[in-house]
């Protein structure tokens, strides 16, 4: 969740079982009351179907109430933010990132910590990075490697696309495992990088 005006913004996200509030200028604030409860009042709440002035109650990182506030009793031990004049928007999703990617003899400038920290500062609370296996490399092994890179560093939610950089029966079988057992629901096929990552027409048809 993101509160925004021309001068400052405030991001809300859930990390494990704790809630964290971070000012966009980098200064930390406490997002936890004794009961981990947060009440945002009088904000302009942006949803998929429009904008309305409303109050929001959040407990343990979950939105429990959105409404006028007239019928809601604010629980004790609750931190309150007056969002009058601010827009309250859902956290953004960046569906295309490349953190800690080794390519062409270099490594992308942001690792999973710096990249996701910057994302959260701007109100993006979920990123989708790309697993890019080498030619002949197991998709499952590459996926596990990306998980190891990310799990100890990310400060927001994340998911992984998996690139298909070569084709065989084992790749097909591993795609099925990734979908059914690892929760992967998107794969990338390269139309560029001939001889490196690109798949040909017959392979693309089989995929």
UniProtKB/TrEMBL annotation:
<dbReference type="InterPro" id="IPR050378">
    <property type="entry name" value="Metallo-dep_Hydrolases_sf"/>
</dbReference>
<dbReference type="GO" id="GO:0006208">
    <property type="term" value="P:pyrimidine nucleobase catabolic process"/>
</dbReference>
<comment type="similarity">
    <text>Belongs to the metallo-dependent hydrolases superfamily. Hydantoinase/dihydropyrimidinase family.</text>
</comment>
<dbReference type="InterPro" id="IPR006680">
    <property type="entry name" value="Amidohydro-rel"/>
</dbReference>
<dbReference type="InterPro" id="IPR032466">
    <property type="entry name" value="Metal_Hydrolase"/>
</dbReference>
<feature type="domain" description="Amidohydrolase-related">
    <location>
        <begin position="87"/>
        <end position="206"/>
    </location>
</feature>
<dbReference type="Pfam" id="PF01979">
    <property type="entry name" value="Amidohydro_1"/>
</dbReference>
<dbReference type="GO" id="GO:0004157">
    <property type="term" value="F:dihydropyrimidinase activity"/>
</dbReference>
<protein>
    <recommendedName>
        <fullName>dihydropyrimidinase</fullName>
        <ecNumber>3.5.2.2</ecNumber>
    </recommendedName>
</protein>
<dbReference type="InterPro" id="IPR011059">
    <property type="entry name" value="Metal-dep_hydrolase_composite"/>
</dbReference>
<dbReference type="GO" id="GO:0005829">
    <property type="term" value="C:cytosol"/>
</dbReference>
């Amino acid at each position: 969740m993101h509160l925004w005006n021309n001068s400052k913004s405030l991001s809300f996200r859930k990390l494990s079982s704790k809630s964290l509030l971070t000012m966009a200028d980098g200064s930390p604030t406490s997002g936890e009351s004794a009961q981990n409860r947060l009440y945002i009042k009088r904000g302009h709440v942006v949803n998929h179907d429009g904008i309305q002035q409303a109050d929001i109650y959040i407990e343990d990182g979950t939105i429990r109430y959105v409404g006028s506030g007239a019928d809601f009793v604010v629980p004790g031990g609750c931190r309150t933010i007056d969002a009058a004049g601010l827009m309250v928007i859902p956290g953004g999703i960046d569906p295309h990132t490349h953190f800690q990617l080794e390519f062409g003899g270099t490594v992308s400038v942001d690792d999973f910590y710096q990249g996701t920290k910057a994302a959260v500062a701007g109100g993006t609370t979920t990123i989708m990075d790309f697993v890019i296996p080498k030619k002949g490399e197991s998709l499952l092994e590459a996926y596990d490697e990306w998980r190891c890179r990310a799990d100890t560093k990310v400060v927001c939610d994340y998911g992984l696309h998996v690139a298909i950089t070569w084709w065989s029966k084992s790749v097909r079988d591993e795609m099925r495992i990734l979908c059914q057992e690892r929760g992967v629901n998107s794969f990338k096929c390269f139309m560029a990088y001939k001889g490196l990552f690109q798949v040909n027409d017959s392979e693309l048809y089989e995929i």
